Amino acid sequence: MAYLLHFLLLILASLHLYATTETPEAYVIYLGGTGSEEAANSTDIEAVNLKIEEKERINLIQSYSHALKGFSALLTKKEADLLSRHDKVVSVFRDQILHPHTTRSWDFLEAESGLGSERAHRRASNDVIIGIIDTGIWPESPSFDDSGMAPIPSRWKGICMEGFDFKRSNCNRKLIGARYYTGQPDSIHPSLSFAGSPRDTVGHGTHTASTAAGSTVQNASYYGLAKGVAKGGATTSRIAMYKACSIGGCSSSAVLKAIDDAIGDGVDIISISLGMSSVFQSDFLSDTIAIGAFHANQKGVLVVCSGGNDGPDSFTVVNTAPWVLTVGASSIDRIFQSTIVLGNSLVLQGVAINFSNHTGSQSYPLILGGDAAAQFTPVSEASNCYPGSLDTKKAARKIIICMDNDPSVTRRVKKLVAEYAGAKGLILIDEDEKGIPFDSGSFAFSEVGNKAGAQILEYMKSTKYPSAIILPTINLDKTTPAPVVAYFSSRGPGGLTESILKPDLIAPGVSILAAAMPVASSDTTPAGNKPSSFAIKSGTSMACPHVAGAAAFVRSAHPRWSPSMIRSALMTTATITNNLGKKLTTSSGANATYHDTGAGEISPLRALSPGLVFETTTEDYLYFLCYYGYKDGVIRSITGNNRFSCPPDPSSDLISELNYPSISVGKIDRGYGGVRTVHRTVVNVGPANSTYVAEVEVASGLEVKVSPEKLVFARRGTRATYQITFDGRRAEKGYRFGSLTWSDGAHSVRTVFAVNIV
């Protein structure tokens, strides 16, 4: 719009006066929401250049104009500082690098729900559009076939951008849109290399897109493993791909542009399987995903994000803004077993994906990595299979045993070290990652935990000539217990605020089979095979599109529900037990807490009929920003509403009052009363004349009271408010966990809570 263009020109002109010899860097300049004003004219903004020191340089990288105002540009630090002080600017921050964090998974989720799905699936429409912000897409994959799909919804405003290897005809009624983002000079982020095309060059985006909404593909497998029917969670939904990432990561300014474009194009749900490291979390107004997701919610678009792969430590979960649906990862009831047979006939069940030609009729000498150390190499390095640490004469034609005492040496590196040393195979003893299969291609590889590792080492001591064989992988289904919280899945509490419980949910993120780039890899493609159209991957990146697909499934049945209502339905109907009927556990076998699981494992079919929902409005989120500490003027700029004011005496303690489907109280001080009361409001989306009764489950020591204990709804759509009081005067210090369940006999509406006693 003319106002914003004029504003930019004034700022850029003033910056010219402060030009220095500093090397410019990429910054994001966030100007807030569009409000009710006319959106900025992107073409005009992109024509703005900044002339510094008599050299013409294109200063603008991206511009944002659909749901938010702003741009990214090359600026010196002095210019960025000057710009940040302007009263029309909400925030200025460096353009950061973000990183990307199926046959059985959806069947497993349906089986775990205990519900027949045929009638539920018939309720789904094909008008839901999922925007995927990722590394691009491989359009020829059978997962994106559009056979039998209806015409593209008329409300769709997006485009199918062409590139040197991507044609407009690559889009269809399933893949209805594709964009890619370039324009940032390589000198700014040299690790990023963006080809001019929406085509996937990494494989991540193709995998996540097909997990969320891939078409049904019969006889899918990964070279014979995980054979079955591949499908997404919302097989009739549409996909729009926004390629903002490359092999080196994702430019945060491009991610924000992708969110802005997706909103303007008309998507219903945005799936973002990426984020910054938990070590470098910034505040909500210096986080492009948080900024973009806020404005998406304003426009009725639900944003689903991965929570990160920095687990199992506490305070590692990212993408924790309360308007983001944050997802952790869990296993499904399938393992990829790579059996180890020792020379004494002891059989150990390792985990890996390997397609070696070993058979049970042969065996190879076993040797510890430390015993195969090259000259002048410390034993500790050879034990961990450091690059260059193994003596080829000692390792050749043997199976190497390596440890994982140093996480900086990845499994891929260890495998390559053993392979280059001429070894016939590698056994890795690693307690932490023992359940996450590593793909070693044709090289014999298996991974075991400490218990099996101790058995191998004991055998090594018992004989002068130890030997073993590593058999090719087979997959075993219907394993127990499942789901289990993945070792790598990032955990709460949230680092920015402990008064919102994160992650929100967990979903399948271990050994997920989905579409892939059919490109041969010397590391993983078995000898004599063509590249596979499917791949098996693990990460919260894989869990995120499961929730996006489930959300699309719920929205297809309830098109008028707001993003927060869909989130609430998924959270309050989540399961907190495994397929043995016991409490969810972590990969170590310990009982999981709600900082591990959020509300629990998604159950998409149950979410279709939640009974009650918690609706969180834009005004609620604005009050959250007040309580968090942002000033009125900043919040007015964000929302585009000049009439908004924070309530008197905002306090961070009030964040727990946000009408959220879970409860987190970051601090109850026993020295100052030890009692805290929070309030919630629910909407009846079930039958009229319903009565719900409260039931509390809580750890010993913490006392919890609910008032009233009964909620009565005369009609559908009516609301009821209740309060829940936590008394921690007799509780031990630390987090106490529990849940409040409202039940009418047909619906169970569970709200989990975490309360920190200090």
Automatic annotation (TrEMBL):
Record-linked InterPro entries: Peptidase_S8/S53_dom, Peptidase_S8/S53_dom_sf, Peptidase_S8_Ser-AS, Peptidase_S8_subtilisin-rel, Peptidases_S8_3, S8pro/Inhibitor_I9, S8pro/Inhibitor_I9_sf, SBT
Keywords, comma-separated and alphabetical: Hydrolase, Protease, Serine protease, Signal
Domain named Inhibitor I9: residues: 27-101
Residues of the active site: D134, H204, S541
Every Peptidase S8/S53 domain range: 126-582
GO molecular function terms listed in the Swiss-Prot or TrEMBL record: serine-type endopeptidase activity
Domain of life where this protein originates: Eukaryota
Residue ranges of domain Subtilisin-like protease fibronectin type-III in the record: 657-755
Residues of the signal peptide: 1-21
Annotated CDD domains: PA_subtilisin_like, Peptidases_S8_3
Coiled coil (residue ranges): none
GO BP annotations listed: proteolysis
Membership in a protein family: Belongs to the peptidase S8 family.
Name of this chain's protein: Subtilisin-like protease
Species name: Apostasia shenzhenica
Gene: ARA12
